[in-house]
Design goal:
alpha+beta, five-stranded antiparallel β-sheet, four-stranded mixed β-sheet, 24 helices, 64% helix, ubiquinone, membrane
Length: 655
């Protein structure tokens, strides 16, 4: 008995699967659009549930249902054209899931409601984010920031209160993890946004983050190197030299005698970073959707660029490759450490040790500030690979009096066209030419369809008059530039935003080396030097030689082509051919539009003809004495019209 029940259930299940497959195939073929499995199943169930109510009245009106004789109690055979009626009923049945799918397309567009699998994943993500939000809130409350999150914090009027609040913020960011420590590092360089007390306190996040215990670090080293540190290194100091947001740094000696620095990733940070980056992406997407300034700044792309940079920093093999790429170009007076590739893994980086003093403890040296700016500008404008995070914690004053640049986890890359546009932008700024600055800026950023170039030129002219040659603090320059970009609907690409972010960070770093250092004037001097080098006879000769070499093939072909044109004009054979719709995308669009129009016309024509035939008496009976041929054809035309109209509607409402 149990076997029969199991077989019966299996047969029932197979039947339903076959029916769903048939309905799905027929419906999607008729509508010309693919649908998700959930919608197909719901439409099929709705078709079977509504089939009886929808088809019974049709059968009754046609006299196609068996009729019970009250006198004898027997059912009479309708004696109808069974094949025609069956075909009509099948077509009517097919209309039901099509109508359900089109209505669902209008009321619940695809993607607006997650499917079962997506819903479960979304629920898990919401719970995970909720726990993270709760954890961050508890950290803020524990550090005394709860009232400020609710907008009810005490007003701070004295330096002692500012210092205490800045300390609470630093500790909260430190406890919250890598992403928030990175945020604190960026804020520590923005003297135009925060008071000096916050800048000073948040600056401690650059290399004074609470270190992880040695026991946890030792497990990472053992897993990555495959042996205890005593077997890999001749000596290893277990006290960290520095502790940053992503990694801790230790000193060691290789068996060959070289002194090295071992950078070890903090354990367990990947999961936390993934949650935080998900929060950042969602916040950026919300702001870009709901705010004009979010759309103009392209916050979604900026957040994605930030996420990519953070993920790259979590893979030390990428950092080792970045070090090699930067070191391939001349470094000038700035020194870069060299990695030891055989010891570098995803979570461990072994590199040359540079001996010196942290920048925060270095004496004032304007010459070194100029060297550092010159190094970064050369990386950005000439080499195309630049250090994207030059905060004071990543720079050292070496024992030989030069600077050392550390931590290449965050590196920006620019292609030749962007570098050329940035060069023109800086040269135009040096000459204070608003027209040239406007043209260069519109080459750097994606050009919008509508823009008031004259107003943008005036705004940039006022920007240069305010910031160039005024001798004022230049910390707000990038803020004003971003404000202009936002006001005119421009969107800065992530790689260019990384340039501005690196220069803004560098401005805060240069203050440690030379208080009052004018980044803008020094950058203009660099532009002047670059321009002078570009105008030297040898440089001009090389440039002209390259241009002429590129033009020679075209110049050789030009006389022959001119002769052909002149000959054709002389003999009256000169003509011009234009290819309409030469682009494949244009052809697809026109074809799609013609299909839509044709389907609409056919659907309307079939519906009109069906109504006319239904109102016409005549033709032979096909269903006893109740339906004539014209009526049957009219019903078929109405069904066909409905199918065509539904196909047009679903393509209109499909986003």
């Amino acid at each position: 008995m149990m076997i029969d029940s199991a077989l019966g259930f299996l047969a029932f299940l197979v039947t339903w699967i076959v029916m769903i497959a048939l309905v799905a195939t027929a419906t999607q073929r008729l509508l010309g659009v693919k649908f998700g499995l959930t919608r197909i199943v719901i439409a099929t169930l709705a078709a079977f549930a509504l089939a009886g109510m929808a088809i019974e009245p049709i059968l009754s009106s046609l006299g196609a249902t068996p009729v019970r004789d009250p006198a004898t109690g027997e059912y009479t055979d309708p004696g109808v054209g069974a094949a025609w009626i069956l075909l009509l009923l099948i077509m009517c049945f097919a209309l039901i899931p099509m109508v359900v799918l089109v209505v669902a397309e209008v009321l619940v567009p695809p993607g607006s409601v997650p499917g079962p699998v997506e819903f479960v994943r979304s629920l898990r993500g919401r719970l995970s984010r909720g726990r993270r939000y709760s954890q961050i809130t508890r950290i803020a409350v524990r550090n005394g920031l709860g009232p400020y999150l609710r907008g009810r914090g005490d007003r701070v009027d004295d330096r002692t209160g500012w210092v205490r609040l800045a300390g609470s913020l630093r500790q909260a960011l430190d406890d919250a993890g890598v992403t928030f420590v990175k945020l604190g590092q960026v804020l520590s360089t923005r003297r135009d946004l925060l008071p000096a007390e916050f800048v000073e306190e948040l600056g401690k996040l650059q290399d004074k983050v609470t270190p992880a215990p040695w026991e946890q670090i030792e497990k990472v080293l053992l897993a990555e190197l495959g042996a205890p540190v005593e077997e890999v290194f001749a000596t290893f100091d277990k006290v960290p030299l520095a502790a940053a947001s992503i990694a801790q740094v230790y000193t060691a000696t290789l068996p060959t005698g070289e002194e090295v620095v071992v950078k070890v990733q903090r354990p367990g940070i990947r999961a936390v970073v993934a949650k935080d980056l998900d929060i950042v992406r969602r916040l950026a997407a919300t702001l870009e959707t709901r705010t004009r300034w979010g759309r103009s700044l392209g916050l979604r792309d900026l957040a994605e660029g930030f996420a990519v940079a953070i993920r790259e920093e979590l893979d030390f093999r990428i950092e080792a490759a970045n070090m090699a790429a930067v070191a391939a170009a001349p470094s000038g007076p700035v020194t870069y450490p060299s990695p030891f590739g055989r010891y570098c893994t995803e979570r461990v980086l072994v590199m040359q040790r540079l001996r010196g003093t942290p920048l925060a403890q270095a004496p004032v040296r304007p010459g070194l500030a100029r060297d550092l700016l010159d190094c970064l500008l050369r990386q950005i404008l000439l080499e195309g690979v630049f250090h994207a995070d030059p905060h004071p914690g990543n720079i050292m004053l070496l024992d030989d009096g030069t600077l050392g640049l550390l931590d290449f986890g965050s590196v920006g890359r620019l292609d030749a066209s962007v570098r050329a546009a940035l060069q023109r932008f800086l040269l135009a700024m040096n000459k204070q030419d608003p027209l040239a600055v406007t043209d260069a800026l519109l080459e750097i950023v994606p050009r919008p369809e509508e823009i008031d170039e004259a107003a943008l030129e005036r705004a940039l002219g006022q920007f240069m008059a305010r910031h160039l040659g005024s001798g004022l603090n230049t910390a707000s320059m990038f803020t004003d530039l971003f404000r202009i970009v936002t006001a005119y609907g421009l969107s800065i690409p992530p790689e260019v935003a990384a340039v501005f972010r690196a220069l803004a960070t560098l401005e805060g770093t240069l203050v440690h080396l030379a208080p009052g250092f004018n980044l803008v004037e020094e950058a203009r001097a660099f532009a002047g030097g670059y321009l002078s080098a570009a105008m030297e006879p040898q440089t001009i000769k090389e440039t002209l030689t390259g241009e002429v070499a590129a033009l020679l093939p075209m110049i050789r072909r030009l006389p022959r082509r001119l002769e052909r044109i002149a000959s054709a004009a002389e003999h009256g054979r000169l003509s011009m051919n234009m290819r309409l719709l030469g682009d494949e995308r244009d052809r697809r669009f026109v074809t799609h539009l013609l299909h839509q129009v044709l389907l609409t016309v056919l659907g309307a024509t079939a519906g009109l003809m069906g109504v006319i035939l239904l109102s016409t008496d005549g033709g032979p009976f096909v269903v006893q004495q109740t339906m004539r041929l014209y009526e049957l054809i009219g019903y078929f035309l109405l069904v066909i019209s409905s199918i065509l109209v539904l196909r047009v509607l679903v393509l209109i409402f499909r986003r």
